[in-house]
Amino acid sequence: MANKTAPDSSRRSERSRRAILDASLALVGEVGYDKLTIEGIASRAGVGKQTIYRWWPSKAAVLLDAFTAGVDEDYAQGLPDTGDLTADLKSVLHATVDEFNDPAFQAPYRALAVAGANDEELSRTFVSRLIEPGIRVYADRLRAAQESGEVAADADLRVAAEMLLSPFSQRWLMRTGELTYDFVDTLVDLVMRALRPGSESV
Amino acid sequence: MANKTAPDSSRRSERSRRAILDASLALVGEVGYDKLTIEGIASRAGVGKQTIYRWWPSKAAVLLDAFTAGVDEDYAQGLPDTGDLTADLKSVLHATVDEFNDPAFQAPYRALAVAGANDEELSRTFVSRLIEPGIRVYADRLRAAQESGEVAADADLRVAAEMLLSPFSQRWLMRTGELTYDFVDTLVDLVMRALRPGSESV
Amino acid sequence: MANKTAPDSSRRSERSRRAILDASLALVGEVGYDKLTIEGIASRAGVGKQTIYRWWPSKAAVLLDAFTAGVDEDYAQGLPDTGDLTADLKSVLHATVDEFNDPAFQAPYRALAVAGANDEELSRTFVSRLIEPGIRVYADRLRAAQESGEVAADADLRVAAEMLLSPFSQRWLMRTGELTYDFVDTLVDLVMRALRPGSESV
Amino acid sequence: MANKTAPDSSRRSERSRRAILDASLALVGEVGYDKLTIEGIASRAGVGKQTIYRWWPSKAAVLLDAFTAGVDEDYAQGLPDTGDLTADLKSVLHATVDEFNDPAFQAPYRALAVAGANDEELSRTFVSRLIEPGIRVYADRLRAAQESGEVAADADLRVAAEMLLSPFSQRWLMRTGELTYDFVDTLVDLVMRALRPGSESV
DNA sequence: TGGTAAACGAGACGGTACGTCGAGTCTTGAT
DNA sequence: ATCAAGACTCGACGTACCGTCTCGTTTACCA
């Protein structure tokens, strides 16, 4: 299947791998995604270009690895559950507002979102590693609330989670609006109205 | 502000302008945004590269002009109002599902969304010319419904419109899910629950 | 022969003509021949490009006109004739040494010599307007000396004049040696030996 | 002095070097110096432009290398010495007349002469690699003749050599006259008169 | 413990596209 | 009709990176 003999990953230099990942993150923050080059990464990392090409298919893939390296475990413990769904959602989303307003976080994440739009393969990984887990932890928290009767039994929780998250990420990605606590509060309140038991469709 | 003496737009060649815009759209459909080049556009349009650089700052700006040329009037007549908000929303969104599933439409739109993420200036134009008007016509329709008592008086209609549109465009842009009639129906139903009179927050 | 209708030279703007010629000389001194451009001349002269193209076929032709404008009459009065050929030649060549060592003179003259080498048409004009007259005044002075018996009767005076002038201009053009009074004195002395009466070939 | 880190010449591709040199000579013969372009050379040689820019500073430098590649050894054996100076000079110059009247030779040589006039750095190399050795072999032959008493003891042989060569190359370069056997014969005869023993200046 | 094969740093290579400059042509108003 | 101005098509410039390809030079396993 592979036309080139695959490299022997057991002999891979961990030192180079880390240097490349670090250089990528540093550079994307400094010059932006468009001006991020393989040559630049190699030179900053003190590494031969071939070492990058040997292990990654594109600069987007490098960046994706660099970015997801420290993020995977964030979703592990799920959302808090104090028994008050509205309060839990607001508190988590307030934290997320702060995170997405942090410039250091923006550059690589935005770059990946973008790169994914034009690279379907990359997109799959990006979605399954970063976006999908995010949606899922929200859907899971909603399910818990549903089971405790806090949420209407017939609500489509996946779509509900998207109603919560997409307006948020859309505002951020496309700069269609400010990301404020007020905004997410309004959003949560509206969604909660839709999910309230007794609001079932006729 | 301008470092170069601005060109005299009264002497601009309409013929060249159209050729460039047409070539851009054709090419982005054929080769995609990443492989779209200024040289390619110029050559296809039978135009000197300088003529492109004289009037546009980047390939993204060309594409934005090309794309918005025929779209501006789409929002002019607003959304239909048959008196049944749910039905109106579903019918419009069904049409939009079809539009966004059309490959000819996808390439340039996706490209612009992407280009905007990394170019703040371009992003503003993209949002104000394409996205903002879209949100606005939905918000307007909701307002009409609110005035007729079909929607709760205290609902934030702008955020409600985003709850309707963002999950949709997010699925499309990031490929986080299928765009189907079912999906938008579920979406509309959920949002309508949130907006139903009598659902006001306590 | 001309495919375009020739411009009507009676309506030509003398003001523009002078401005173009002046700008050419000024610019060639400032930036050198290679970086001399038609656009630069036009802009400096406050003139449309077309006005230059209308009246001259190339930048070299402009420069040739500019340069020869004030030079033609230099050759009119011929070489001095005090009766002492050797002294006359040395005194004139000393003056020429000074002239050719003047930087203001070098740039355009060198440029024309060069342009001529690759443009046969221009070359003809350059030679017939500038070089040929120079050789001729020397040959004429030699002829006078021959008639007065100061020079051998059988000497080829045209070639003798070239023996005097070519080593000089060669040194200057190709930078093969310094242009000094000593050098031209040596040159004159050697040539005079060849021309001395009684040196006729056997 | 060098602002860019110099390339590692030990890794230079001999194949590319030869292809570039060959293409340069071929093209200058076909299109002339002015229309000779780096892009043209690169494309003809099947080479990236950067490979030319990496090793040469200008098209003139490429051409100089190309031209001198096969010429250096021409001067190695010096001029013939049959004991008859006049005959030796005439026979060599006759050969040179033929060489300079050969169109294949003219284009690059003329181009270099010209390029040198406007590029002092190039000029030095051109002179020291091609012109100076030429003058020197003539001066050497004259010295041999001087030592054997065929030439006056006090004559400046360097200037004498220039008297022989400069009128020749001047005629060729500036097209001030025909290059014929007759011309060089006359030239040699005149110079020989100047050098004849007993012609010493008083 | 020394030999050898892979990965490595470095960077030259053939290419493509960049954004700029100037050439020479063409069009528009003003004189 | 010529002029100043400058937009146009075209071609080349010199630069930046691409992804591929040698080069020695580590490095780590295995004989």
Automatic annotation (TrEMBL), chains A, B, C, D:
Q: Where is the HTH tetR-type domain positioned along the sequence? A: 14-74
Task: Please give the start and end residues of each transmembrane region.
Answer: none
Q: Which UniProt keywords apply?
A: DNA-binding, Transcription, Transcription regulation
Q: Which PANTHER family match?
A: HTH-TYPE TRANSCRIPTIONAL REGULATOR RUTR, TETR-FAMILY TRANSCRIPTIONAL REGULATOR
Q: What is the lineage of its organism?
A: Bacteria, Bacillati, Actinomycetota, Actinomycetes, Kitasatosporales
DNA-binding residues: 37-56
Name of the protein: TetR/AcrR family transcriptional regulator
Please report a single Pfam family linked to this protein.
TetR_C_11
